[in-house]
Design goal:
3 helices; globular
């Protein structure tokens, strides 16, 4: 799991861009969201983990 701010810092894109992409992935049910106070963490949906990791490895 990684926080939006961490993702923004590690990728060099804005937090609002990360937020937009996370919303899209969540709507597709590819990730799950866990809100804790004013923080939100995301994880790959376990149902799709293997497929996502395979596609990632083929892409990179």
């Amino acid at each position: 799991m990684q926080h939006q701010q961490d993702l923004a810092l590690s990728t060099g894109i804005s937090k609002s861009t990360v937020t937009w992409h996370m919303k899209q992935l969540k709507e597709l049910d590819l990730i799950t969201e866990n809100k804790m106070g004013n923080s939100t963490t995301y994880s790959i949906n376990p149902i799709y983990r293997e497929e996502i990791e395979k596609a990632y490895m083929e892409f990179f």
